[in-house]
Amino acid sequence: MQNDVFLRACRREEVEYTPVWLMRQAGRYMEEYMAIRRKYSFLEMCKTPELAAEVTLQPVNRLGVDAAILFADILLPLEGMGIDLEFAKGEGPVIHNPVCSEEDVKRLRLIEPEEDVPYVLEAVRLVRKELDGRVPLIGFSGAPFTLASYMIEGGGSRNYVNCKRMMWQAPEVWHALMEKISKVVVSYLKAQVAAGAQAVQVFDSWVGTLAPEDYRDYVLPHSRYVMEQLKDVGVPVIHFANNASTLLELVREAGGDVIGVDWRIDLDEAWRRIGYDVAIQGNLDPIALMAPPKVIEEKVKSILEKAGNRPGHIFNLGHGINKETPVEHVIALVEAVHKYSKR
């Protein structure tokens, strides 16, 4: 492979500079993406392997990042489980048959990735072929809690009241749902690796809504199951929990070769808390990319200083790129990370 610095950093090996890739690096802030998006719906793009592959490659070609991440959506495997999913214009994902009862959970089925999400796996194969070893490809999935929250709430939520109500009022139903989702996440990610993904990330986008006690009781066993089942897949596993500074030790307990952290905590404190025996990913505030390039440079230097040249740091944002971000600022970020982290 021409550039394996990302994979080596995941394994906490010495690298010549800090690798950088960005969550949501393939997306609406790029004109190349919007040129395709104007012709096709979001789901059409996800379900057409050639389009998904093209969009995946756009930031690699334009930005100089050290890894590609597959263009897809965390909710795609839910359709195979029996969930009626729509991406409504201006609303985001809408689930028309939310999971509300034990009977709803029983009706859900475990997916067969080659049958239920063949377009995702074909996109992986196409991207690997097109990359031709330039940089590694990252596959991904939503984490059990985040997928469950969408399934129960019927979409995004401000307070996750239905989700928490099920946890507290019907814990046996909650755990049955989480067990099914966890098995789906494992089979989905294993299929991506078999298709060619060279690392995988598990996104727990909404888990920061939970108190530590509730994470420990209702989420940790299921996230740990996923991480343990992925130990032997032969690729690094990144565990990203958003807005989870209060949960870091528990997230670390759940597992992962790399723990992703957001910008709400200093990187040095986060690494100290999770332990130096795992790699860390992060953690620039995505909105900092709206700042002048000089400010971006200073923030990059600050994060790199907190990492202290310790092996195992992957530079990233604390969440996905905002759609209004100037592409030139993203390029400036990548160049600054490479420039100031040279060993």
Any descriptors?
single chain, 343 residues, alpha/beta, TIM Barrel, 7-stranded parallel sheet, two-stranded antiparallel sheet, 17 helices, 9 strands
Report on the architecture of this protein:
A seven-stranded parallel β-sheet has the order 1-4-5-6-7-8-9. Strands 2-3 form a two-stranded antiparallel ribbon. With 343 residues, it is α/β, with parallel strands linked by helices. The chain has one domain (31-283): TIM Barrel, CATH 3.20.20.210. Helix 9 crosses helix 11, helix 10 (161-169) crosses helix 11 (171-195) and helix 13 (220-229) packs across helix 14. It has 17 helices and nine strands.
Classify the helix fraction into a percent range: 40-55%
* Bulk shape: globular
Number of helices: 17
Order of helices and strands: HHHHEHEEHHHEHHHEHHEHEHEHEH
Q: Which radius of gyration do the C-alpha atoms yield?
A: 19 Å
Structural class: alpha/beta
How many individual domains? 1
CATH fold descriptor: TIM Barrel
- Note the gap between the termini: 21 Å
Strand order of the largest sheet: 1-4-5-6-7-8-9
β-strand number: 9
Largest sheet: 7 strands, parallel
CATH architecture: Alpha-Beta Barrel
What percentage of amino acids are in beta strands? 5-15%
Could you give a quick summary of the protein structure above?
It contains 17 helices and nine strands. It has helices at 5-10, 31-37, 42-47, 49-63, 76-81, 102-107, 113-116, 118-131, 144-153, 161-169, 171-195, 212-218, 220-229, 248-254, 267-274, 293-307, 327-340; strands at residues 68-69, 85-88, 92-95, 137-142, 199-204, 237-241, 258-260, 279-281, 313-314.
